[in-house]
Amino acid sequence: MFSLMQSYPKIFQLTYLTPLKSNFLHFLNLQQAPRIHFYYKTPAPFRYFAASKMEKKQWQKHFFPLLLTIFFFSTFPYKTSLALQDDYIRQPPGKVVVTPHHRSQSDPQQVHISLVGKDYMRITWITEDKGVPSKVDYGKISGKYNAMAEGEHTSYHYFFYSSGKIHHVTIGPLEPGTTYYYRCGGHGPEFSFKTPPPTFPIEFVVVGDLGQTEWTASTLAHVDSKDYDVFLLPGDLSYADAQQPLWDSFGRLVEPYASRRPWMVTEGNHEIEIFPIIYPHGFQAYNARWLMPYEESGSTSNLYYSFDVAGSHIIMLGSYTDFDENSDQYKWLEADLAKVDREKTPWVIMLLHAPWYNTNSAHKGEGESMRKAMEDLLYEARVDVVFAGHVHAYERFTRIYNKKADPCGPIYITIGDGGNREGLALTFENPPSELSLYREPSFGHGRLRVIDETRAHWSWHRNNDSDAYVADEVWLESLTTSESCWTNTEDRSDDSKVNKDEL
């Protein structure tokens, strides 16, 4: 629901964020928004479906439910809890890029892969033909497939929209650092991917708030200009905002990249897509399309999970599901961190959507309740780095615990600058906080290259230049190397200092 209201900012004003409880109906009071002075290009639903005859038919198909949605929100007195600041200016965003489907109904589209357990990969794709089998043929030689795996399929409805057949097939065991060729459902083109290395070095690309705009295309082109092993996305994928054909468009846009390297994602506020009474729980499209290895990590929800890859333990948290001490997510995180073996996975990296530390006026304080609930768990487990999105800018902090610099706390990095359709969050606090070491409102992407058990190199690449430009970089040291952090688990002193050149 919130994402729908963000799609129509001239109709609604969004106010204050509070945590949402699962299985509860939240009542909202929607008021017409006053004049807001920032540059914002309102998404035009009519524009999305005007590129071809096929897309015109799609628009006609979804015109009525869209009008019904707008009418519902305009008529009934509900009150929202999602903040949208009035006092900051966003740059004009790039135009939305709609990616059509040119293959046959039996051919795969929106192909993407994800890690699932040790030495396995999940292949996900969609077909319009419901009779295509959920199977993948694969092998190490192009055109020669000596292995085949069968999987499952699902579909969903959202008002008058019906998804295609969504296939999920897990293949393996696979050899690390190896290129595999595969074909989905016995139809269409051949794809290939390379499995991550068995150990260090490994390189992660980190991009938040991706969307599907001209800036998105620029970011993905810059990402693709240099090889990497795993793509990490801390929420806000398609910005479909309940306009379900945009989920399909997003899947086709990212397919050339997501079919070649594993994409590991977690949800953002634009994935919620709640509609009162009819769709009260949200995340229907996200859960159906972007199935992650939550069951393999002991989680009961696709909204939070963890996985190991090449000496790194990656935790994906859910900012938009329960997280207090009595919640399933809290108990799962506590158990997951307790099982981490820092000899096998010396690096522990966490991703979530709403940042816990933020000096931008955009979404100020929206991650505070989650920080208060969970920060002690991260600190006691000596998590190395926490990535977040949501704020459409880049910001890197020092090591922090409880709002103070602490050499045993995580490094916090906000990277919600992938290419969203809403523009950039330009207003940072002045004077800047001593905890914030670098901040810049530009589109871009980050790369974390973990060299070995102790060292990693982080770089942020601004992409509003003709070539990706390294605007910020720093060498990181794993907390496994700090004896004092493991021998002293008591609260740190207030005057803890951190070397700002090597964290």
TrEMBL record:
Keyword match tRNA-binding: no
Domain annotation Calcineurin-like phosphoesterase: ranges: 204-394
Residues annotated as domain Purple acid phosphatase C-terminal: 409-472
Phosphoprotein as UniProt keyword: no
Keywords: Glycoprotein, Hydrolase, Iron, Signal, Zinc
GO molecular function: acid phosphatase activity; metal ion binding
Reactions listed under catalytic activity: a phosphate monoester + H2O = an alcohol + phosphate
Domain (Purple acid phosphatase N-terminal) ranges: 108-195
Pfam families: Metallophos, Metallophos_C, Pur_ac_phosph_N
Cofactor: Zn(2+); Fe cation
EC number(s) from the headed UniProt entry: 3.1.3.2
Family from the record: Belongs to the metallophosphoesterase superfamily. Purple acid phosphatase family.
Name the UniProt record assigns to this protein: Purple acid phosphatase
Source organism of the structure: Durio zibethinus
Organism lineage: Eukaryota, Viridiplantae, Streptophyta, Embryophyta, Tracheophyta
Protein's gene: LOC111310984
